[in-house]
Amino acid sequence: MAAVNKPVNNGVNVDALLAAREALKAAPEAAEFTWRASCKWLNGTHSRSTVDSYHGLGQEQKHRTQFSFEADHPEVFASEDNGATPVELVLVGLASCLTAGVAAVAQNRGIQLRSVEAKLEGKMNLYGILGIDSDVRNGYDGIKVTFKIDADASKKDIEALVAQSQKRSAVYDIVTNPTNVTVEVL
Amino acid sequence: MAAVNKPVNNGVNVDALLAAREALKAAPEAAEFTWRASCKWLNGTHSRSTVDSYHGLGQEQKHRTQFSFEADHPEVFASEDNGATPVELVLVGLASCLTAGVAAVAQNRGIQLRSVEAKLEGKMNLYGILGIDSDVRNGYDGIKVTFKIDADASKKDIEALVAQSQKRSAVYDIVTNPTNVTVEVL
Fold it and tell me: CA spacing 20 to 30 A to B91: which of A85, A90, B9, B119?
């Protein structure tokens, strides 16, 4: 049997993305997006957040369905562990952003992915959040991301994929660079 | 009927937290935590992340159950919208961190909470992630958090609660200050 030259399909519609890129160049206001989340306190450190609508392409948009997330602190912090901790949710955001980027870049470069796995670890000294030592930050000392990728490509090309995903990742930017946060009480 | 002087109960065990604070002062190595997430690519920009184990108090720890999160890009990005976007997950992390902090600080200050709601908005210009303009960042231009809190306290005391929660929030620190992220490919 002759070898079949199967087209690369990672499930990313790169043609549509490239067309959107051209369309947005001509309509800058459509590129202004607002993402939202709402959070309700349930009890103790337990909360439920929902993600539902956003603004983009010049109008209000809705997700296909509402997404809901429970967060809590673990039992070792005298809490009920009813959900992931907020800092783990940040790791999930970073992991999913870099992973989506790997798939999109692979599609654009004609690389067929078979599997992509990322493991993330963030180290944190509790002396920060507990207010024991003001020289210790509240957040992560650092985050380590380890990718394991099976794809029709050399190690070097896979590393280049991951590097390009980092370069275009929104969450990588949010975590590695400062973002202004304003907090208001109604 | 006589007024009943009900003790404040926001569901946060402040005594246990203060005891833990003292115990950790005497055992600095127990305060070194590692939080983790694992992410598997499913198809396109769709991934599933899980949160399960962490390290702290000098040993491996497990959440009561594994938490799982689906992330995806929306249909306006030619994706299937099978989950929240990674940048919305960051908003959820920030919202839940500040909300847990409000509850813990309120408990410590003897303020009874009745309800706490937070609405978050992050603005983003897609010219960054699409690589149209290298002067536009990939992440949020800024994030606005709006709290609506019903509690047995003055507006001023409620604002002070929120300010103290910000001051001790791990995710607020991660978002507003730079965090080093290293990415490795196995």
Answer: B9
Collect all residues of chain B within an 8 Å Cβ-Cβ radius of residue A53: none
| Alpha-carbon dihedral sign for residues A119, B44, B87, A85 | negative
Q: How confident is the model at residue B1 (pLDDT cuts 50, 70, 90)?
A: very low
Catalogue the E-assigned strands of A88-160: 113-125, 142-151
pLDDT at position B176 over 50: yes
B172, B152, B146: which is closest to B106 by C-alpha?
Answer: B152
Contact assignment for A127 to B31 by CB distance below 8 Å: yes
DSSP letter assigned to residue A63: E
Among A35, A144, A149, whose Cβ lies nearest the Cβ of B87?
A35
Q: Which two tokens stand for residue B159?
A: 């604002």
pLDDT tens digit sequence for A57-115: 999 999 999 999 999 999 999 899 999 999 999 999 999 999 999 999 999 999 999 99
Instruction: Give the count of alpha carbons within 13 A of B16, CB side only.
Output: 12
Q: ipTM of the predicted structure?
A: 0.96
pLDDT at position A55: 98
Inspect the interface and report whether the beta carbons of B100 and A24 lie closer than 8 Å: no
Contacts of B137 in chain A (CB under 8 A): 173, 177
pLDDT tens-digit readout, B119-174:
999 999 999 999 999 999 999 999 999 999 999 999 999 999 999 999 999 999 99
- Contacts of residue A124 in chain B, CB cutoff 8 Å? 32-35, 170
